[in-house]
Design goal:
Order of helices and strands: EHEHEHEHEHEHEHEHH
Largest sheet: 8 strands, parallel
Bound molecules: D-xylitol-5-phosphate, zinc ion
Oligomer: single chain
Shape: globular
Strand content: 15-25%
Number of strands: 8
Structural class: alpha/beta
Distance between the termini: 9 Å
Number of helices: 9
């Protein structure tokens, strides 16, 4: 299994967005993670389609969009048009989760479901055939720079076992508090894709920070 690092532009210097993203990619970042927050589902407000469009002009790497908003289904067509490649939302934010996952795929994006620390795995299990990605939250979403919640490790292990049992090729992504110190634990538990905001863009050298995250996994395979 190979490691995929998805730096979150939430922690980037937006005044130097192109430069920051290019540095992360130079270090080997494969996806660019975009945290969309509505100030309601989570207590913080960030950005939407204009930033996705701007990033689309900066890079051809997959844009991994994480919606922490109520009624994410309202944005499926708009974000596909803006250039999003992965569309991940939280089951608590809407009602007809299966229908919305299917519509994300119909729009040509990968369909992801995000599980908060208190969200049971069963919600993903019920729609496993409609999922391209499971996002295990290792913090309560809303802010960058929080600490990795250790209980996420067991959740990752259980998701990996579920994907194996159901022969699902879905991506297993983890988000929140991923650093050079915590990534090996999440990797060892079976995650393959790692969101990192502060660890990458809080660093003076984002390229080196991405390489260091990858190195930590390489020494523990
Ligand atoms: C948390 C967001 C994360 C956040 C991660 O609400 O979903 O993607 O940007 O930031 P760090 O890596 O700083 O915990
Ligand atoms: Zn995120």
């Amino acid at each position: 299994m190979s490691v995929r690092i998805a730096p979150s532009v939430l922690s980037a210097d937006l005044g130097r967005l192109r430069d920051q993203v290019e540095q992360a990619i130079a270090g080997g970042a494969e996806w660019i993670h975009v945290d969309v927050m509505d100030g309601d589902f989570v207590p913080n407000l960030t950005f939407g389609a204009p930033i996705i469009r701007a990033l689309r002009r900066i890079t051809d790497r997959p844009l991994d969009v994480h919606l922490m908003v109520r009624h994410p289904e309202r944005y499926v067509a708009e974000y596909a048009d803006a250039g999003a490649n992965v569309f991940t939302f939280h089951p608590e934010a809407t009602v007809h989760v299966q229908r919305h996952l299917a519509s994300v795929r119909e729009q040509g994006m990968l369909a992801g479901l995000a599980l908060n620390p208190s969200t049971p795995l069963a919600l993903a299990e019920e729609v496993i055939g409609d999922l391209d990605l499971v996002l295990v939250m290792s913090v309560n979403p809303g802010y960058g720079g929080q600490s990795y919640l250790p209980q996420a490790t067991d959740k990752i292990r259980r998701v990996r076992a579920l994907l194996g049992a159901r022969r699902s090729p879905a991506v297993l992504e983890v988000d929140g508090g991923i650093t050079a110190a915590t990534i090996t634990e999440a990797w060892g538990a079976g995650a393959d894709t790692f969101v990192a905001g502060t660890a990458v863009f809080g660093s003076a050298d984002p390229a080196a920070a991405v390489r260091e995250l990858q190195r930590r996994c390489a020494v523990t395979v």
